[in-house]
Design goal:
The complex is a heterodimer of chains A (223) and B (130). With 223 residues, chain A is of the alpha/beta class. Chain A has 8 helices and 8 strands. A 7-stranded parallel beta sheet of chain A has the order 4-3-5-2-6-7-8, sandwiched between helices. In chain A, strand 3, helix 3 and strand 4 form a beta-alpha-beta unit. In chain A, helix 1 packs parallel to helix 4. Chain A starts with a strand and ends with a helix. The model of chain A has no long low-confidence stretch (mean pLDDT 93). With 130 residues, chain B is of the alpha+beta class. Chain B is 23% helix and 30% strand. In chain B, strand 4 and strand 5 form a beta hairpin. In chain B, helix 1 crosses helix 2. The radius of gyration of chain B is 20 Å and the shape is elongated. Chain B starts with 8 loop residues before the first strand and ends with a strand. Classes of the chains: A alpha/beta (223), B alpha+beta (130). At the A-B interface, strand 1, helix 1, helix 3, strand 4 and helix 4 of A face strand 1, helix 1, strand 6 and strand 7 of B. Strand 1 of chain A pairs antiparallel with strand 7 of chain B, so a sheet runs across the interface.
Chain lengths: 223, 130
């Protein structure tokens, strides 16, 4: 048989995108909203989630899908709040993909859930390539990481509906220019909201929770 | 407090893995699928286009590809890489320019309303098959 050139011109992420679309349909069919939270390790995702659960648990039925490289420390902390938590261990893998999230969604009682948070693996590069089928995407960036991250990792910030700037209580000790930071985000992603928060003390979380409430209300109108 | 035994732990990967393993699995699946549809018996090489923002590293892709393709018609296939740099478009002037080190500013109007138009590519352009 002779050699020939076979034109493919197809993204290797298409298979993931197809599965993400299935997740989106599944969630919509059950009237549940899924929010994908991405950040570097140590930026405060789990603390943010615990505070958010505390504020919203009386209004909504919540669940959390925890992505972790190996341990179940974060899922233990969430389950300690008596919230359904599904742990996905990627055994070293640096991002969640749509199929992993599908497996987790299948383990949840979606009929009785309003809101599913996904805590993605701590990583600003790999996670951005994989659509999970979430309704909204949130990027959490903490002050000690520096305000140059949108220039170093632009892709993830173009995916965000909300960029949370966490640990604003330590602003006096870092060269993080919070006044100019929103411009770096909205230049790249005009529809993104930038919300400064302090997950540890609860500062700024009212606006964050209001945004979640608006998101859930909008999804209910749409279905 | 619930112990970890009381909620499901889903193990996603079969063995130790990293970024490139799942990328390579997707790459291999797409290559095998495309070859099968064309009734090819062997994949000799794959021309892959990789954007700078995807964070995909050649050496790691080659390593996992050699490992994962072992018992397939893609075994021994060479991967040729075409890298695409990060590229921005100014929403005001419509000109294209590369990402500067610490700024998105358009070299013409100095505005920062920009859109990423290059750098997120991750696709198979074509393959040499037999």
């Amino acid at each position: 048989m002779s050699a020939k050139t076979l034109t493919v011109k197809k993204s290797i992420l298409d298979a993931n995108a197809e599965r993400a679309a299935i997740n989106r349909e599944l969630l919509a069919a059950h009237g549940a909203v899924m929010i994908n939270i991405m950040s570097s390790p140590g930026s405060g995702k789990t603390t943010l989630l615990l505070q958010t659960i505390h504020r919203l648990r009386d209004r909504y039925s919540l669940a959390v899908i925890e992505g972790d490289v190996a341990s179940s420390i974060d899922a233990d902390r969430i389950a300690g709040q008596n919230i359904p938590a599904i742990q996905i261990n990627t055994s070293g893998g640096c991002h969640l993909d749509a199929q992993m999230v599908k497996n987790a969604l299948d383990a949840l009682d979606l009929d009785h859930l309003d809101l599913v948070f996904v805590e993605n693996i701590g990583n600003l590069i790999c996670t951005a390539n994989f659509d999970l089928g979430a309704d909204k995407t949130v990027v959490l960036l903490s002050v000690p990481e520096g305000d140059d991250k949108p220039y170093k990792y632009p892709l993830i910030f173009t995916e965000a509906d909300v960029v949370l700037v966490n640990k604003i209580d330590v602003l006096p000790y870092f060269d993080f220019d919070l006044d100019r930071f929103p411009e770096a985000i909205t230049g790249l992603n005009p529809s993104a909201k930038v919300l400064p928060v302090c997950a540890k003390t609860g500062g700024g979380l009212d606006r964050w929770c209001s945004w979640i409430e608006e998101t859930v209300a909008a999804a209910r109108v749409a279905t | 407090v619930l112990s970890s035994a009381e909620f499901p732990i889903l193990f996603a990967a079969r063995s130790s893995s990293m970024h490139e393993q799942s990328i390579v699995e997707a790459l291999l699946n797409l290559a095998l699928d495309s070859a099968q549809k064309a009734n090819a018996r062997k994949i000799a090489s794959i021309n892959l286009v990789v954007g700078d923002y995807t964070g995909v590293v050649e050496d790691a892709v080659n390593f996992y590809f050699a490992f994962l393709s072992k018992d397939t018609i893609a075994a021994g296939a060479r991967i040729n890489y075409t890298h695409v740099g990060g590229k921005l478009r100014c929403r005001a002037c419509d000109i294209l320019f590369p990402l500067q080190k610490r700024d998105y500013r358009c070299p013409q109007c100095e505005g920062n309303r920009v859109e990423i138009v290059g750098g997120r590519e991750l696709y198979i352009e074509n393959m040499e098959v037999e």
